[in-house]
């Protein structure tokens, strides 16, 4: 990886701010984060997890979301069935199904591990339906975003060695030829 930790922090802030602005989230919305520190470090997903990279990226995202009163949901890896780490307040408010797992570096990932330390009362949930999210390292977050999904193309589409994509959503358009949509 040829990126410094300060550059990593700065680039994360730039990318996430861009995505949040394009997604037009408001206080109380949910934002999913898929994250591979291995990919950020220039490796292959799931092969070279880095707690340090996880702490920098999640710490930066946590602050950005917290300042906007947006809920953070961090997707875990396939070893925990892509469960999401969220604040217990959100799980209770949305009546989300809890699962019994605690994130670890190689089962959940460095992003979940870092977020676990940042959150007040973290819990794992099986599924969530968020308005938008970011995918750092091709981790496949689409299953956790509302229908109809709309791709967001961040101005900067790489973080370290990781490919970055994002999604937002819009309400479904229903009705026939006479229906009027906003």
Which range does the strand content fall in? 15-25%
- What's the domain count? 1
Rg over CA atoms: 16 Å
User: How would you characterize the largest beta sheet?
Assistant: 9 strands, mixed
CATH topology: Rossmann fold
Total E-strand runs: 9
- Structural class, judged by helices and strands? alpha+beta
DSSP helix count?
A: 5
- Mean of pLDDT: 93
What does the overall shape look like?
A: globular
Gap from first CA to last CA: 45 Å
Order of helices and strands: HEHHEEHEHEEEEE
CATH superfamily: Hypothetical protein TT1679
Provide the CATH top-level class: Alpha Beta
CATH arch. level architecture: 3-Layer(aba) Sandwich
Residue share in helices? 25-40%
Low-confidence stretches: none
Can you describe what's shown?
Pfam families: DUF436 (PF04260). This is UPF0340 protein IV67_GL000523. It comes from Weissella minor. Belongs to the UPF0340 family. This protein is α+β, with helices and mostly antiparallel strands and 182 residues long. It has one domain: 3-Layer(aba) Sandwich (Rossmann fold), CATH 3.40.50. The chain is 31% helix and 22% strand. The chain contains 5 helices and 9 strands; from the N terminus they run αβααββαβαβββββ. Strands 1, 2, 3, 4, 5, 6, 7, 8 and 9 form a 9-stranded mixed β-sheet that branches. The longest helix has 19 residues, at 5-23. The termini are far apart. 42% of the residues are buried.
